[in-house]
Amino acid sequence: MEFSDALVDWSRAQFALTALYHWIFVPLTLGLTFIVAIMESIYVRTGDAWWKKTTQFWMGILAINFAIGLATGIIMEFEFGTNWSNYSWIVGDIFGAPLAIEGLMAFFMESTFFAVMFFGWNRVSKEMHLFSTWLVAIGSNLSALWILVANGWMQHPVGMHFNPDTARNEMENFWEVIFNPNAVSKFLHTVSSGYVLASLFVMGISAWYLLKGREVLFAKRSMIVSASFGLITSLFMLTTGDESAYNVAQTQPMKLAAMEGLYHGEERAGIIAIGLLNNDKKFGDDQEPFHFKMEIPSALSFLGYHDLNAFVPGIEDMLYGNPDKGIMSIAQKMQRGKEALKALRAYKEAQKVGDTQKATEALKRFEANQAYMGYGYLKKPQEAIPSIPLSFYSFHIMVGLGTWFLILFMAVLYWARRDQIASKRWLLWAMVGTIPLGYVAQEAGWIVAEVGRQPWAIQDLLPVGMATSNVASTSVMITFWLFAILFTGLLIAEIKIMLTQIKMGPEGGH
Amino acid sequence: MKLGKRLWLIIAIKLLILFGVIKWFFFPNYLEENFDNDTQRSYYILEQLTKEE
Which of A186, A202, A363, A381 qualifies as a FRET site for A65, CA 20 to 30 Å off? Predict the structure, then answer.
């Protein structure tokens, strides 16, 4: 790689740190905005003052989360300019356009109506206030759309053309970028996971009130709204997760194989329900990849290809190639990538001396191999494989917890319908204990998506090692720790202020 | 109101730290700082992309 491993590792660690911390705040906002909008709609429809109080309490919690999380994402933009300048230049307007739309449209819409929502009680009509609350919910989710369109493009770059004169990707088809299947499924899956997290959060806090024997009506009402919203969005999340997996299978088969610890490809491939990876396993040896595993037969074939009998390529099929299945080895891709880079170099030289014929020939060779360009930077084929333990365990933690959340929502609605929820203390404790698990699932999902994409910054085109800037690794290390301190401080402030507010309860004032 | 004031204070301090300190001192835009125009930036990136090991 061009840059030192220390620089790449610190830059990577810093981005992961900021993204993971930012993602503590975002999903709660995404979901809580809809929950308060639903509660306020009930208030406007029924005129029941209790619903107004309920809405205002959760709106206060939303305000805390919004204020503390505000601008934590902007740090990633700083990092793009300083630590990831090669990447920022190469992605060009593909990344810039969605982010600019996000800034101009969604964020301003969200912020404007946020002010009406928080400060507009008794200043605007009930209907106008409700309208603002819904627009905040829609606006904050639209912000996520544009960010995830940009991220979806990194996972599956489409709708662009690489200009060898400027070294930038230029957008050719805006709609192809927006409706990139990876972006659409990623957006829907990500926002629906935020709705589930917010539902778990509201349900857990409500359960705490019931355990304390406080705010009983408020807690029961909040619980029913959040459990209903959580159940519906969990089911939706299941379908979007299925779509996400299908897209990963089509465009990032190495990621899918790492997520399942699938070394050898097979037809009717199963999904590991529970498994313990064998860490001594090396590529190409005879060891079993798992110490033990429980598998759901044919489920991976179905998930990845919507066909119970489909062949799912394993890591070694892609690493060494599998001619029977038409799979090229990584070494072959590296060769094609090196051809692309050689041709790009020849094109640049020919342009410099004004040799048009040579430049045209070189460009032709470059375009023939361009799809493998990123592989030309790899030193050895194994570099094309993401961390298998991180991908595997994160994926299974996410799926396992998602299943638990679904069961929990159903159980809560079952007992709430019988008006026995307050007496089921084990269930109330389970709800309280599930709040942190919601966050664990969120972060695990981010790890699956982003660690699973490694070594690529842009899938197949640009490895992370080539995306960084030529800056000192020590300066990246210093800012890593600065952010670690700043974000930890913010998180402590969030938890402290929220706990104070929750202890005060809905009667504590707005 | 007490909560609102505290949140505004946190927002103000945070923005000051982010834009007044961190962005200013630690996060200059690498390509803008080191090159005068886009032609130079393109040339530099192409150099990086095609540099032989």
Answer: A186
Strand blocks (E) in A148-193: 160-163, 168-171
Q: What is the pLDDT of residue A74?
A: 83
The conformation of residue B21, written as its DSSP 8-state character, comes to I
Q: Testing the interface with B: which of A78, A80, A369, A485 to mutate, by most B Cβ within 10 A?
A: A78
Which helix (H) or strand (E) segment holds residue B52: the answer is none
Quote the pLDDT of residue A392.
97
Give Cα separations from A218 to A33, A54, A116, A225, B29 (angstroms). Answer: 18, 6, 24, 11, 50
Task: Output phi, psi for B35, to 5 deg.
Answer: -135, 150
In A159-297, DSSP assigns E strands to 160-163, 168-171, 266-267, 271-277, 290-296
* Cβ pair A177, A94 in contact under 8 A: yes
Q: What is the ipTM of this complex?
A: 0.88
Ranges in chain A, pLDDT < 70: 1-3, 106-107, 508-510
- pTM attached to this predicted model: 0.92
3-state secondary structure A296-347: ECCHHHHHHHCCCCCEECCHHHHHHCEHHHCECCHHHHHHHHHHHHHHHHHH
